[in-house]
């Protein structure tokens, strides 16, 4: 079983260092595919990151209150609620995405209703074939993956701690932020990982409800594969796996830190966002002026160094601004 | 305790309204599908002007669709049986034996849950190609086994951890062999979890699209057929009619599977569905 899983991945890794040459595969080892994928596809990587980030945020923000409701407010029919919340997840994914198309279309359910009641005269165009549609559809599709882990961690919260908090004079809001929320963070962390990883690799939703430029990482992998360039497809897939894994790792570390030091975690999060923006800005500048033949790996190294330096100085600057040494 | 809960209860209106609003959001697409399957029109326009059951009658006239449905059933049955068997072995190894590298094995088996499906599909396709195995329904089933095993394992481990190990020890002490102990003591105790694992893995396989997309040969599964028809909206209404029937069937299956999983499940570890 273990070998059955490791072998395909190992062969794919090998494939990614080969090169497609017409109908044949040239088995001389080369990093060509990686360089090509990195320089050509990086905007789509960033776009996928942005969309998946929005999806994760929306899903977790919507899922938390519902998990909280079932864990703390529902007394006698918890089991029924949990089944009700999981059923949509088990029904056909393609048909659900198609249903969103019917709901969001120009002459769909929402526009039809709004026009019928006279609230709007012209149909709203941005509902379908937009980033909004992708985020909405994915937030719907992966809801169960966010609700269940958060629910489990909320259910485990020791109720006597809340009682103690109340006895010592904390109001419900304070005791939520100081007791319940920190204790539920492990659930939030697994929810973030469980939603982020599959959505960044999703193929169906961006293709069906996203606009003409709605494609995300999976679309690139599939396109190279359809274009009969399997080594390039393999390299893109491996890059995306490294990309996803490192972001998931970063997120988890950040959330762990936020349990003990929320402000520090916030500072680091801002620093990372600023540095990503800075590095992608430098990349657009550099790409126009780099002499032909510079290995992409050199560009990547420079960017990595810029990124680390960016994070370091932003953290220092932010801390100084916030009055913390 | 009472004081805290009462306080929370008093402020509970907002969150209750939110909870029901969220349910409406979750179920909106699932209500739209049946609604439009009864619409007597080939364009998906709202409001619907006329209702009819003609798309349900049309199902019988689509041999290709029924063939795809049949293929999906075959793949689902194979995948769920194989994944549950593998999951059972893995669960037994993990809960009953001290094994070196246990966590590594657990992590690797669960990996398909954490790597993007497009990557899994491509990796499997490459290795099948290297091994010169022609693509067919069986290659799709093999991919699904890989995807479904972690689900089966999660369900079965929860159950095997839950019951009293001394029952097995008693049976062994009284002279039963390992196999007979498994059949006469362990299996009856975990039977609800086995059935629930079979149902859940069947549903996962039945609905799976992307792996099948990569691993398909000449024959289509139902999701592949649906994907093909999405480009021709005028052909789509019978698909909605069939989809509505399947929706109903899978709701019943899920409720049944979840109910089985809850019956006698250990109370201190509430875990429902996936990722829990």
Low-confidence stretches of chain B: 1-9, 267-276
Helix content of chain B: over 70%
The helix/strand series of chain A, from N terminus to C terminus, equals: HEEHHHHHHHHHHHHH
Walk across the major sheet of chain A and give the strand order.
Answer: 1-2
Enter the CATH topology name of the largest domain in chain A: MetI-like fold
Description:
The complex is a heterodimer of chains A (325) and B (276). Chain A is mostly helical. Chain A has 2 domains: 238 residues, Orthogonal Bundle (MetI-like fold); 65 residues, no CATH class. Chain A contains 14 helices and 2 strands; from the N terminus they run αββααααααααααααα. A two-stranded antiparallel sheet of chain A has the order 1-2. In chain A, strand 1 and strand 2 form a beta hairpin. The longest helix of chain A has 42 residues. Chain A is globular and about 70 Å long. The model of chain A has no long low-confidence stretch (mean pLDDT 83). The N terminus and C terminus of chain B are likely disordered. Chain B is mainly α. Chain B has one domain: MetI-like fold (Orthogonal Bundle). At the A-B interface, helix 1, helix 2, helix 3, helix 4 and helix 5 of A face helix 1, helix 2, helix 5, helix 6 and helix 9 of B.
